[in-house]
Amino acid sequence: MISLEGIHKHYTSDSRRLHVLKGVNLSIDDGEMVSIMGSSGSGKSTLLNILGLLDTYDQGAYQLGDTAISAGLSEVKAAQLRNRFIGFVFQSFNLLPFKSALENVALPLYYQKIGRKARNYRAEKLLDLVGLGERTKNMPNELSGGQKQRVAIARALITDPRMVLADEPTGALDSATTDDVMAVFKEVHRTGKTIVIVTHEHDIAEQTERLILLKDGQVER
Amino acid sequence: MSLDALQEVWFTLNQNRLRTFLTAFGVFWGIFMLVLLLGVGQGLKNGIEQSFSSDVRTSMWISSNKTSLPYRGLPQGRHIKLQESDVDFLKNQFTEINIIAAEEPLGSNFRADIYITYGQQSGSFSVLGAGANYFKIKKNQNYHYGRRLNDFDEADARKVVVVGTKVAERLFGNEYNPIGHQIAINGVSVKIVGVFYDSGWEGRMSERIYMPLAAFQKTFGKGQNIGSIAVVPHNGVDNIALSERILGMLKERHKISPQDNTALRLFDLAKETEEINNTFAGIGLFLWFVGLGTLMAGIVGISNIMIISVKERTREIGIRKALGARPRQIIYTILSESLLVTLIAGYVGLVLSVGLLGLYNWMTNEIGLELPYFSHPEVDIHIAIVALLVLVCVGAVAGLVPSWQAARISPIEAMREEA
What we know:
Number of helices of chain B: 13
Strand order of the largest sheet of chain A: 6-7-8-3-9-10
Order of helices and strands of chain A: EEEHEEHEHHHEHEHEE
Structural class of chain B: alpha+beta
Number of helices of chain A: 7
Number of strands of chain A: 10
Oligomer: heterodimer
């Protein structure tokens, strides 16, 4: 289970101190598929970054399974935990342009010091799972937006993470492709993964089990 | 570095070929030019050194000419002839003298104008009588066959000669050993006992024939006159001061005005050597300056490219961090890339430049290519390796600073960078 209690986060921008998260409380069960919605500036991306250990919080408590995540978590420790427990899917895909689909998917395992052969074997399996078994050697610029996002999902899954965090995963896709990508998320969810999707699209939120609504730095419901 | 890490580094480099090429070329060019310039400098130095004769470097040669001033009732324009007795006189007067020897040419001292024959073969060469101890001064002569002239040859006035390689080649062909054969000098038969190579005047001193002075004087009716006296002082003696005193004494002996600067001529090899060495020290310094300048340009080039490269890759670094790369791994990856590029490019630069110098040496040996005052360019490989290591270290440090900064930046901010 993932739980956040009284999470606060401030940013300083142009010498102004912004209070972005104002005591966020939430819990997400293992295997749950939730969406986080909120208007622009509500703090949903900040919340996702804290959940994904891409950013630290100032005050509160964060429990990721058995691991208590401290407010001043070091970058080294964060990198290790990210690599083991969390898979990311970004709106802009964030694939490395000079690596093929297969190599992009396999990359997180490189940082776990897993050999190339084993990495590629697992990456091929996952690309098969997201329906891109035939495109393993394609470079990102040879793939459509939907295909790129499916590669990103496969990459997020390769370390067998506890949860997958997706930041506006369909934001750059047309509606047909959005459906494809959501189908993949649902498929992944059926394997028991926790999935957290930040979105501003109601259609997407409705396809998840629970909606967490953020307003002005707090969970409204 | 593991094979897997090496593959990852190679893969990234291969995918960013222009950037890799630019970095590599900076390193390559820096090392290539430095080694080449140092090699050329050494080649020039070797070339000049080869053109020195094989005489002891501290030797002084005194020869005589016409007087330019009247003195004690004697007119100007008088021909001064040095005598063999002058040699004994100077030896007794100056304890500073280590070796002293006399030399007398048959014709001109500097022109190869004596007709020499062997069977049907003939040629014109210089012939000189060489007094006792003469070959202690020509100590760097390289004997291809036989031996030097010695004290017994002189004492017994033997009609034997040593000939230069060019004489032997002309009369006997390239590979033939002429020891024991008789050649005729102006019709007089003499036996060859040695064949030498003398690098002086770019090898033209190997067109000479030397005969013991006693036999020479007898054979060619030369009396006691000698053309030159060679003096080698003991170590630590000031050549200039000694030469002034010797000239003063000889002027007195031969009734030459102390102000007459043309009647006796002095060639001080030590002074000549020093002047040439100073010139080459200057050229060497200049080549180092240019070489280091090129190296510096390479260093600045690598630094710039590394900084730009890391900046360009901020987003990539952010993605890698989000996927679990630790800061150390980011730094390690970037450093490995820059080290691999600089090492390979530097190595290629080193090999190519050393190869080019080697090619020149090969062409010199195999096809006889020769440039004047340039010989056997070579480079102290230690200097080249140190230069390469400096470049590699600088490349590493140049990459370290921006990659350390990039590794510290938060992945979210890094991923916000435009691709």
